[in-house]
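If it is no trouble, might I ask you for a protein's amino acid sequence along with its backbone structure tokens?
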Amino acid sequence: MAYVDRNQVERVLKIISSKDSRTLLSMLNKYPLKHTEISKNLEKSSNISSYHIRRLKNSKMIKVDKGYYFLTRVGIETVKLLKAFETVCLTFDLSDASADGIIKSIVVRHK
């Protein structure tokens, strides 16, 4: 079994708890974008989009090449997990469930 850096997992969960970060991942899942396009699509200032870009880059979910941001393999897998989580939320009554437990079960199933 591969080593799992629990601190990295916590950082990623914190980042994807942001709606803007999730929206950015979703946008980049469609096609690479320049910083100005990201700001425009997020309808946020350049400073705010820079903040989310920096966090996603530091967590290895996105990269930049020739001015275009795109998803890394980690980013692609994160988007898949987010879609699976949305399906769980739409399918089941989660009123009595622990979100942490649900996320952990999704992560285990997608390994």
In short: The radius of gyration is 15 Å. The helical segments are 6-16, 19-30, 35-42, 46-58, 73-91, 99-109. DSSP finds six helices and three strands in the chain.
